């Protein structure tokens, strides 16, 4: 989306309100009143066919008659009138339309929505909405909305798909003490979408953190790209994670790919930090908008109370920053700022006696230690100390230390005095919270931001050369036969073209050929029915394992055919696959779906009961780098099994990393063809001994 257009839309120099009304209580009145009341400095033009003056401003009967240029128009006329108004705005060369009106795609009138987008694009305009509350900006004193007031001033900016949530957040900025520069309601996203605003806000000089409330993205890959390019922290709260179109999917992967997991993976890949709920969105946004990223894992906690120290310690472990003891020299120095019975290990317990000076000395010294990557300062209100003085002491200590690149969060637990001390700290750029675990969670967000920044900088290049043409030739033959399902042999040919190690598999059409191929592969072998109409081969009695000699090949051939005929008389049977019998290893599963939002998406997990019962799987949007693939191995609960438990040697993680990386490139490159695929099971051997894809499945998109 063109930056010039977005500037005009969101930071307009002149603005019209089409549908301005003189009737208090109407949205057209409120928007105009808000623009005036909040101190918008640009020119405001109310448009109304019958009025002559509203709220002291001259009214124009239509936008075309306004003299001079208009950057943005807020539209507050009923939906049926919007197409005509958009046309007139186009003729007037307006750049951005803020369409508050409801009654478009959200209520079944997609046609009307498409019509206004077409007209807007015809005239080179962009649309925010429709079905929005509007847009607000503290730095521009712009309240082009029907939200009651500008939010508490701050450095974060929020984009929300829910208008109601914008209004709720607007008020809560004051009660929660979390400031925002801009609040933008995006509604139906008929034109300008979340990715466009992420890119725009990334360049906005008044925004240091981009905060998002997302119900559903339209173009997931565009969002990932925007996240990857951003230079500022992005935090997202995703709602509606319970019912994602998983039910209709035929594969394991499909049924396991709920929105929470796929969105979670996509956010991680886009470098987007997640909020667990609305409260967490506020808390994390505050820290991310005020503090630098935490560049290492060493967190130091300074406290005057054991209880809050323990709460913070528990939280540190829970949120992935387990505390370590401070180095001896740091402990020795810190001991100077506490009584004999204090503790300098970590948490640094200055004890209830701690006054302003001890806090000052401890904070100033600790933040400057190279060992310390981030600091949480806790304080419980005591009768001997003044919270405001402690807050000033902390601020002064940080200033005097000269250290600016390390994050600090604070929690003051107490009453009104503590609350006002925290207000002071926030104004001074130090995020402060009423509970110690929240201060730690906010610090964890700063650590996560740093980790994600490094993660997204890894290039996702394939780990092995691939032969896309060979894979497509297999798919073409399947299509020519009017099929959507590849046989196991065909699926393995495609896998093999992408460097995935498969078990040697040959097709026998006759019993005699089966014997010959079994001899060629070497006993023992596995025999499996090959039919595009039988997906679940074992259920059909179509699999025999550990066939050790010629006589058994004859028996197996006949019984597999008979079973298959019994199972599905009309099934087209290509023959019987003769396969090398891979030695048993740890079973893992790999799968892919074509996610409606993000496209080709892959899943990895331990096979068997782990995937069936525990659903112990992890997801990524394709492609993944080798580094991301290796992280996927560590994400499942069963990770210790791969690392080697109870004297078992570790599994070949390197081979698994390559497998995941290559598989992700396969599903992406063939994304126009593959609907779903599985490698299940994959048998993984001990370190250095590789792995084998034992069974493979590919289902093509319907064309
Ligand atoms: N040009 C300019 N003004 C016009 C035109 C025109 N072509 N035609 C009519 N008007 C005037 C009307 O005369 C009226 O002014 P008046 O009060 O002086 O007569 C004004 O525009 C508004 O028109 P009304 O017909 O009175 O419409 P009303 O104000 O009742 O509703 C609205 C319009 C608010 C856009 C409504 O249709 C709507 O969509 N409401 C929902 C909006 C909403 O909630 N959006 C956010 C969703 S998110 C959330 O839920 C929080």
Secondary-structure content class: alpha/beta
- Shape descriptor reads flat
Bound small molecules, by name, code or SMILES, are:
acetyl coenzyme *A
Task: Write down how many β-strands occur, each being a DSSP E stretch of 2 or more residues.
Answer: 29
Q: Which runs of at least 5 residues are low in confidence (pLDDT < 50)?
A: 244-253
Q: Which percent range fits the helix content?
A: 25-40%
State the end-to-end distance.
32 Å
- Kindly estimate the percentage of residues that lie in beta strands according to DSSP: 15-25%
SS element count, helices: 24
Mean pLDDT: 93
Oligomer: single chain
The value of Rg in angstroms is: 31 Å
Strand order of the largest sheet: 9-8-11-10-12-13-14
**Main pleated-sheet profile:** 7 strands, mixed
Structure description:
This protein is α/β, with parallel strands linked by helices and 703 residues long. Helices cover 39% and strands 21% of the residues. The chain has 24 helices and 29 strands. The strands form six sheets. A seven-stranded mixed sheet has the order 9-8-11-10-12-13-14, sandwiched between helices. Strands 24, 25, 26, 27, 28 and 29 form a six-stranded antiparallel sheet that branches. Strands 2-1-5-6-7 form a five-stranded parallel sheet, sandwiched between helices. The model is unreliable at 244-253 (pLDDT under 50). Bound molecules: acetyl coenzyme *A (ACO). Acetyl coenzyme *A is lined by residues 18-19, 21-23, 26-28, 47-49, 51, 76-78, 81, 85, 100-103, 131-133, 163-164.
């Amino acid at each position: 989306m063109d930056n010039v257009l977005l500037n005009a839309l969101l930071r307009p120099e002149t603005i019209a309100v089409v549908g301005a009304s003189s009737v208090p209580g109407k949205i057209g009145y409120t928007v105009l009143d808000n623009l005036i009341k909040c101190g918008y400095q640009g020119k405001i033009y109310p448009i109304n066919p019958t009025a002559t003056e509203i709220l002291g401003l001259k009214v124009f009967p239509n936008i075309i008659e306004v003299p001079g240029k208009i950057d943005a128009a807020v539209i507050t006329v009923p939906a049926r009138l919007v197409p005509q108004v958009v046309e007139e705005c186009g003729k007037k060369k307006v750049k951005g339309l803020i369409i508050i009106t409801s009654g478009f795609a959200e209520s079944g009138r997609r046609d009307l929505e498409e019509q206004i987008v077409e007209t807007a694009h015809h005239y080179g305009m962009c649309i925010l909405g429709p079905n929005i509350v509007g847009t607000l900006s503290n730095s521009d004193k712009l309240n082009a909305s029907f939200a009651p007031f500008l939010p508490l001033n701050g450095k974060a900016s929020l984009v929300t798909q829910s208008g109601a949530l914008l209004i709720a957040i607007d008020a809560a900025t004051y009660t929660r003490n979390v400031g925002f520069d801009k609040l933008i309601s995006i509604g139906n996203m008929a034109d300008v979408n979340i990715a466009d605003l992420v890119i725009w806000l990334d360049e906005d000089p008044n925004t240091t953190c981009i905060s998002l409330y997302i119900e559903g993205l339209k173009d997931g890959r565009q969002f990932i790209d925007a996240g990857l390019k951003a230079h500022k922290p992005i935090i997202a709260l995703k709602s509606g994670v319970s019912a994602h179109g998983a039910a209709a999917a035929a594969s394991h992967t499909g049924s396991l790919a709920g929105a929470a997991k796929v969105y979670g993976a996509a956010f991680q890949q886009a470098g987007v930090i997640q909020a667990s709920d609305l409260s967490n969105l506020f808390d994390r946004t505050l820290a991310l908008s005020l503090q630098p990223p935490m560049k290492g894992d060493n967190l130091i906690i300074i406290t005057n109370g054991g209880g809050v120290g323990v709460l913070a310690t528990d939280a540190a472990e829970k949120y992935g920053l387990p505390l370590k003891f401070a180095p001896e020299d740091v402990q020795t120095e810190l001991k100077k700022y506490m009584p004999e019975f204090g503790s300098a290990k970590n948490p640094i317990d200055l004890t209830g006696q701690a006054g302003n000076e001890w806090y000052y000395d401890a904070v100033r010294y600790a933040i400057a230690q190279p060992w310390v990557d981030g600091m949480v300062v806790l304080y419980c209100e005591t009768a001997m100390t003044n919270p405001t003085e402690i807050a000033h002491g902390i601020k002064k200590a940080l200033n005097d230390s000269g250290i600016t690149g390390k994050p600090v969060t604070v929690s003051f637990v107490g009453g009104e005095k503590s609350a006002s001390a925290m207000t002071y700290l926030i104004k001074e750029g130090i995020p402060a919270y009423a509970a110690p675990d929240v201060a730690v969670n906010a610090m964890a967000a700063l650590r996560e931001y740093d980790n994600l920044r490094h993660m997204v900088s890894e290039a996702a290049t394939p780990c092995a050369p691939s032969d896309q043409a060979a894979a497509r030739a297999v798919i073409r033959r399947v299509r020519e036969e009017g099929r959507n399902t590849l046989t196991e042999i065909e699926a393995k040919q495609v896998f093999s073209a992408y460097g995935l190690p498969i078990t040697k598999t040959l097709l026998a059409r006759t019993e005699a050929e089966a014997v010959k191929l079994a001899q060629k592969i070497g006993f023992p072998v596995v025999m499996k029915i090959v039919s595009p109409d039988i997906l679940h081969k074992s259920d059909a009695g179509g699999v025999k394992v550990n066939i050790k000699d010629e006589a058994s090949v004859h028996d197996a051939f006949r019984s597999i055919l008979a079973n298959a005929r019994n199972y599905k008389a009309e099934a087209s049977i290509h023959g019987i696959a003769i396969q090398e019998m891979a030695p048993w290893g740890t079973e893992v599963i790999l799968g892919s779906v074509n996610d409606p939002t993000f496209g080709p998406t892959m899943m990895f997990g331990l096979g068997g009961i782990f995937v069936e019962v525990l659903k112990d799987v992890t997801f990524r949007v394709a492609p993944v780098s080798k580094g991301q693939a290796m992280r996927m191995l560590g994400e499942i609960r069963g990770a210790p099994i791969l690392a080697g438990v109870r004297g078992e040697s570790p599994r070949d993680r390197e081979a698994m990393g390559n497998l995941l990386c290559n598989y992700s490139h396969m599903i992406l490159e063939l994304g126009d063809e593959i609907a779903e695929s599985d490698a299940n099971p994959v048998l993984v051997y001990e370190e250095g001994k590789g792995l084998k894809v034992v069974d493979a499945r590919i289902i093509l998109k319907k064309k």
